[in-house]
Batch of 2 targets.
Target 1
Amino acid sequence: MKPFVQIATRPEDDVALTERAAVLDFTGLREDDLIWARLDREPFPEFSADDISGIILCGSPFTVSEPEDAKSDAEKLAEREIFRVLDQVVAEDIPFLGACYGIGTLGTHQGAVIDRTYGEPLGAVEVTLTDAGREDPLIREAGLPGVFTGLVGHKEAVHTLPDHATALASGRTAPVQMFRVGTRQYATQFHPELDIPSIIERARAYRDHGYFSPDEMEDIFTDLQSERADEPPKLLRAFATLFAR
């Protein structure tokens, strides 16, 4: 099998390692089948579409809608590299699945309006498939139900999709929870790479990053522990299964 590539942009080594372990677990891929590209510190490795099966981009403390002069050098490097990768992804029709930061980057690349109108605090939300979502090959492979629980925590979101993008899932407070461009380039607002224990661990690492009030953190964790969010990670296994070659 040709490897997949996981793009990581988290500067914190411990968080990045936990994220990688989750992607390996949920995709079912072996270590050798998932190349790790940490774009906050180095350029994306040179590949052609014939060299890899697909690309997975996980969440990030970075946001595309932040003013340019407020972005760190690491954030600017990661963003430049991701847009360069997305140029290739679209031109060569490489399978792509981006989560959270992925919806901001793929959306911006494709002409969506990304702003802070529909940001959502850390928590569990109801996600509803659109008619197109129910017929989408990746979602069907994952066996997602028409309504499921997704885990979120984001400052920015899609405000408006371009006409050529297909909305696949929606939410009450963030209207675009998943979309597709082309036939196999996907982005989700919710996190398919997180389950309840891992989002709590992630939130502890980012308690002072503005995703929630630190004073309310333990109450938020208590509420999360009463939720089940078993469906979204199935997207990662489906992506690895559907596009492996």
Target 2
Amino acid sequence: MQRDQAAATARPELHPDELAARQQLAACYRVFALLGWTEMIYNHITLRLPDSVTGGEKQFLINPFGLHYTEVTASNLVKVNLAGDILDSSVYPINPAGYVLHSTIHAGIEGAHCVMHTHTTAGVAIASLASGLSQSNFYSAQLHDMVAYHDFEGITIHAEEGPRVLQSIGQRSAVILRNHGLLSWGQTLPQAFAVLWTLQRACEIQLATQSMGAPLPVPEAIAAKCTRDSLQFDPKRGAGQDVFNALVRQIDRIDSSYKN
């Protein structure tokens, strides 16, 4: 892509921590594409840059609007601040709907270093159910007391919705945006991925179950135990790093151009 080449050559030499963040996030976009979690050129994964790069200012990377996830690379990711200013002379715009929602969460939840949002069929289907997610399968049982809901207010381009989003989420890292889709956030990208993958699987299985009949509920005590026992989310247990690394190795075998 000519614009990618222009963007890459226009960038000054990057801080090693920014390069690492860019490559990790670009790899994640390719992982989402591998899993089928894409929605044309829409939806977003954002990652806060470390303080070693920003000097303490909250800045984050977001996908360039107009590119498919399979076209995202480390060099064409766009760096923005919480005001929505593009900080790296990118030749690409950003999607206002992504900036508004993600900047709200990065700004308002201190531990939200990575935010992911999808419109998968299963995710939107469960988000459109009045009853929401059913605590009735292996995966939803691992999300006991971790799921928040936010009522649909339309396309997320209005900043005034931000305080209500934060109030709805609280400290819950798995979020169902009613009538809209799924969202997760985490202290790290792999942790946010582990939460979203578990939520997505829970929705897929619920969708399949409800096509056959009424789900069999998991008792509250058992679900709470499953969440305590899960290896997926605890930073002391890797918080999804191993599974994310395994998926990136798959991407590397297919196409490592995301590193560019």
